[in-house]
Amino acid sequence: MLRTHTCGELNMNYVGRDVTLSGWLQRSRDMGGLTFIDLRDRYGITQLVFNMEINPVLCEEARKLGREFVLSASGKVTERSNKNPRMTTGDIEIMVDSLTVLNVSKTPPFTIEDNTDGGEELRMKYRYLDLRRKVNKKNLELRHKMAIETRNYLNLQRFLEIETPYLIKSTPEGARDFVVPSRMNAGQFYALPQSPQTFKQLLMVAGFDRYYQIVRCFRDEDLRADRQPEFTQIDCEMAFVTQEDILNTFEGLAKHLFKSILNFDTEVFPRIPYETAIRLYGSDKPDLRFGMEFMELNEVAKGKGFRMFDDAELVAGINTQGCGEYSRKQLDELTDFVKKPQVGASALIYIRVAPDGSLKSSVDKFYSSEDLAVIALKFNAKPGDLILILAGKCNKTRSALSELRLEMGNRLGLRKPGHYKPLWVIDFPLLEWDEETNRYYAKHHPFTAPVPEDIRMIDQYLSHISDNKPVSTSLSEQNSGQIQVPVDLENVHANAYDLVINGVEIGGGSIRIHNKELQKKMLTVLGFSEEDAANQFGFLMNAFEYGAPPHGGIAFGFDRWTAIFAGADSIRDFIAFPKNNSGRDVMIDSPARIKDEQLKELGIKLVS
Amino acid sequence: MLRTHTCGELNMNYVGRDVTLSGWLQRSRDMGGLTFIDLRDRYGITQLVFNMEINPVLCEEARKLGREFVLSASGKVTERSNKNPRMTTGDIEIMVDSLTVLNVSKTPPFTIEDNTDGGEELRMKYRYLDLRRKVNKKNLELRHKMAIETRNYLNLQRFLEIETPYLIKSTPEGARDFVVPSRMNAGQFYALPQSPQTFKQLLMVAGFDRYYQIVRCFRDEDLRADRQPEFTQIDCEMAFVTQEDILNTFEGLAKHLFKSILNFDTEVFPRIPYETAIRLYGSDKPDLRFGMEFMELNEVAKGKGFRMFDDAELVAGINTQGCGEYSRKQLDELTDFVKKPQVGASALIYIRVAPDGSLKSSVDKFYSSEDLAVIALKFNAKPGDLILILAGKCNKTRSALSELRLEMGNRLGLRKPGHYKPLWVIDFPLLEWDEETNRYYAKHHPFTAPVPEDIRMIDQYLSHISDNKPVSTSLSEQNSGQIQVPVDLENVHANAYDLVINGVEIGGGSIRIHNKELQKKMLTVLGFSEEDAANQFGFLMNAFEYGAPPHGGIAFGFDRWTAIFAGADSIRDFIAFPKNNSGRDVMIDSPARIKDEQLKELGIKLVS
Fold first, then answer.
1. pTM of the predicted model, to two decimals?
2. In this structure, are B388 and B494 located in the same domain?
3. If exposure means fewest CB atoms within 10 Å of the residue's CB, which of A425, A509, B231, B319 is most exposed?
């Protein structure tokens, strides 16, 4: 071992001991008779001292060393005359009597400090230097600890971690797959899993009962700011359970992580139906660190001659307590905010409640004091409050108001770092209708079970379809034929649930279909021809014929959960070697061209 | 929860309790007035009883249920009149008063028993049924436990588990890569990692000190019997260490696994230099559960006119104790064995030591009793022993004799199941010369450090090369030019080591090069042009310029280690969803064709 101790552990108890430390030169100071070097390793920083009088040769040598040189230094632990209470090792220093330069270093392209001078692109290129910064080191340590505690909890609950294959089969439903050409089976391709979904279901069919895996998943999507082509899931599945069992089990996991990692005590997680979440917060992932629920105002706001409200599908607002004194400028800022294309409202209406209780609005022309009082009463508004109202198409208004609510939460400091409000959103719709492709998509995925009482709607829909068209035609053709189907499948509820923390979806799951016939119906609704269904999911539907137990599961975004626990927004800093927004690893310069002989062996060529 | 208890936990303590169990119908017996069903889940089997007198309707229903039906049964725990001491739950049974069929099952294509009637191909296709068999369930449970204990040990030793990317860059050195076409960077490819080698080294440069990861690796090789295109490694790396530190740390890991998983106490692992292993056992992964070391006989066996020995580069043998009475037939079998193409010897010579100490050999024509006595003395042979001798080219003779040694170990029952002899093989050669391609290959990989005292041989070799050819020419061209280089780099020792258990290589590693110049030299020796070296490993060599610490590591084959602990030969049974010898997953039928639009998006087409 090139050291006897680390740079993070020596203190007064060690004074007088001979030690050897190894690490990187963080910083050196030449004080005439003395030279100080801060030596850094994973565990901390310790001060080395070189004395010109005692050992001039060594001291001269030490003066020549540059930043990030790798050193091994031996000497005696000594009490500092000038202690540094902000450092764990600040009471001592090492009087060095021998020094080995284990490696030299060029001057790094940016400083190895929390507040570095390096831009993101540069730091990505030299990721191995970026990772030397304490903040990044802490992020990966947190991630490690999260993984340990996740496994501790699930292992105790008798879950088995089982590895599923990475070389699987492409299923065009959902996001794009990354594919892998097979050399041994020329012209054929594996695909990298978007999740181990079908395999974990097969493990339930196989009787494994409680499965989990901290597992990499892959999606070939155009990357938005905070997406990565490869990401990590805590993937879980249980058999012989109901939704209640799953929520309890994984609320237990979340509570365990909150307690063991953050020492944060959580209360029972609220369970909010999807429709309620949309109605009260305009979002299926509401931040519950603060209230500010939506109030719907159609009844009281319409019919007063104000065109914007009268024409609106929905008039709704929030009450921001204590903002009644907002200046013209602040209100203009808010108006600008809601008009941003990403928010998309056309105007912002406000009602102030003055200290004396009188009401003043931006629509006084249309609304009398009495009218405003009725509205204010709905909000239970108090002197000093500010009511903010949006109106328009229902969905659009809700989503804009949700953005405004979060913005006001930020402005009022209600989204407190270090405070956490986890909740379950339940009763999701099973299907979403897509106007563009004129078909239904699975809101969660094609294996999610509808709630039993809604299955008859699916049956009605399918029987209507088959009455009106030959059975063999695929659904998408039928839809493009503009058949009017009297059953709106968007009303079918799924046995699905999401875990949301502070406005971020951390995980989601569902009770699965475990019956071949129902699975076939679901795939038909999603527009699969019988042939496509058999080709892509035949193995799963076959498995359902051999005694598939009732089962369900959940998957958590591990990168994101870690980021949330660190109070960070971006997952990138919690991944050791992330890719940039073009899916490139700029450090290793990948993806890259491969040799012609590799292409030839794989039986593929580039389209130039 | 569709059960109150599992099928593995009920015993006399529960008698009188009302319980609900869920599981699969393993077997049912109709005994007239009573019907018995063995209900199976992950945890065990419990007997259900249906009584024709008490509840004829339910009993009739139970009689109709087939194998592998999924049931939920409620009733009272009752003491059995006819106890089964071989079952954990054999003291009790459940008097069922209500029964739900959770799912039906077609008759499985093979029996769900340890001794199944299903052939391998069929079981692979229905892997989800194959995994229901107890033997497979136990294998995956063992794997889970191995992973837990591996992490427990390494976490305590302050290792951090850090995830490295799966979408990396193709490096044609070594085995073939699986590649992944990039849609966003058309014409370019990612590669799946054969191991996280360069990334773990970069983590050491980043200062993480102690890294591990239980990680999937990929190799596009023509699959031999016991290879898989994707396999799992316990991948580890440490900084500021010497070989001694690494051997101690991971001997600790191995001891921990032996103790915690098998309750097997191991002694200090012997460390055997590569050359010694080859000389004494003809193998760099000797099975040390038994001795039977090779004895080299050139001195005593040559010069007696026996052509086979006289012409041989090596005459060597083993003494098989207690086989002196082998019959003609048994000796013929051994001769047939050594002549098999996979063993490759031309003949087998023997010397028997009779009970009276007299010697009888198959070469009595050439060797007098005195000659034979000299040989027998070398072996310290005793009455009843049988000396077996092979001769020929040195390497070939050693490898054939190694096979014979293992065969004799098997015949004599010396390779005891449940007994383990781990050892380190050290001092491997750094390079191997390949006659076919006329170049050196890295025995371990290009990042392995030579032992410091042998670096001068590399310098001599390179200076000889550059004296004889323009420096810019690549090495492979120089070699094809048939330059005679006076330095044989096969004598260079690597700072590398393997962990071997019972004749199987479980893991291997090395101290790495951490100096850019030495890494460049190594790549030159391996025939990399400067351009190729920069293109493929530039990021690593750049990293070495910014303060790379001394470091080294090891990787263990996790599938294989688990198999060894289960006393099994094949890794396939320890992988939940393995591929067959053509790299196919026959269950999901992958690899498969992908859609033309996918190919188009990726900018590739098939060569037809």
1. 0.94
2. no
3. B231
